[in-house]
Design a protein that fits this description.
This protein has about 325 residues and is an alpha/beta fold. It folds into two domains: about 230 residues, Spore Coat Polysaccharide Biosynthesis Protein SpsA, Chain A, CATH 3.90.550; about 70 residues. Helices cover about 50% and strands about 15% of the residues. It has eleven helices and eight strands. Helix 2 links the parallel strand 1 and strand 2. The N terminus is likely disordered. The structure holds uridine-5'-diphosphate and magnesium ion. The site of magnesium ion has 5 residues, from loops. The site of uridine-5'-diphosphate (UDP) has 17 residues, from strand 1 and helix 4.
Length: about 325
Amino acid sequence: MQENNASRRELFSAIVPCKDEEDVLFSFLKEFKESVDKIPNIEWEIIFVEDGSKDATLDKIKEMNREDGRIRYISFSRNFGKEAAMLAGLTEARGNYIAIMDADLQDPPELLPEMFKAIREDGYECAATRRSTRDGEPPLRTFGAKCFYKTLNAVSRIKFTEGARDFRLITRRVRDAILELPEYNRFLKGVYEYVGFKTKWFEFENRERIAGKTKWSTWGLILYSFEAITSFSTVPLALVALGGVLLSVVSVLAIVFLSIRQLIYHNSAFGWTSMICVILLIGGLQLFSLGAIGYYTAKIYLESKRRPHYVIQEKSSE
Ligand code: UDP
Ligand code: MG
C-alpha cells in the first residue's frame, strides 16, 4: 500500500534565490514545510541558489543540507543577480512542478496548496501570484511602480499584470519552454507572459520581509525597468523615429513661414530666446534618441558575447 502511494507521488522543486539571507533561512524552511505538508502525494526538494552572499548564508544552507538531503544548493562565484539565480534554479530543478520563492517569506508558502489544486485539478499549467496591496512600501516607490506598469503595457504587445511576483508554480512543460529562450538579457516576469500557457492568478496582501533588508536600491529599480521595457518592446525606437519625423515637419513649416516673413518685412534679427530654446530642445531630443538607440545596441553587444549567465562555485552533492 505504502509502495503504491509512493509511486504516485510527484516531485515539487522550490527554487529560492538567496543573497545575504542568513536571518530568514530557518523561518523560511519551517513555514515552507508546514505548507507543503498539506499538499497530498508530493515529495519536495528545495534548491537554494546562493548568489554571492557576504554573510553566513552559505554555511547555514550547508548545515540544512547535511540535516536533510532534500535541501540542495548551488553557490555562485560572485553576485550575479536574482534573474541569474532563478535561471540556475530552473536549470537544476528535477521536479514535475516548480516554483520560485523569495527567501524572506514575502511570497507566502501558505498559498501553495491552493496553487497546486489549480494545476492538478483545474487544468492550469501555471499558478501566478500578485500583490493586491503595497502596504509598507515607500509611497514614491509605489507611484514609480504604477508608472512603470502603465508605460510597459502601453509600449509592449505582451500584457503585464501590475504587482505580479516572480513567485509562480509552473509545470515542467512551462519550465522547459522558459529554458528554450536563449537570450542573455533576461526578465523572467516577461518571459512567463511570453511563453503563455493557461494561468490562474492568486492575490495576496503585501507582507513585509521578516528580517534583513531589500536588495533593491532606487537606482537598481530604474535600471530594472529599462531592462524590462527594452526586453519586450522596440516601441522606444519607433518613438524616436516618430519624434524625428515630427521635428522635420515642424522645421519645414518654420522655414517656409520665416522665409516668407523675411521677404516681406526684412527684419529677422529678433528672437534670440526662442532660438536658444529650440536649440536646447532639439539637442535634448537628439541625445535622448542616441541614448535609446545606444541602449538597444548595447544589448546586441552583450548578447553577441555569449557569456554564461552565472558561474557556479560549488553545488550540493547528489
Ligand atoms: N536576491 C538574489 N540576488 C540578488 C538580489 C536578491 O538572489 O542580487 C534574492 C533575495 O535574497 C530574495 C529575493 O531575491 O530572496 C528577492 O529580493 P528582495 O527581497 O531584496 O526583493 P524585494 O522583495 O524587496 O523586491
Ligand atoms: Mg523581498
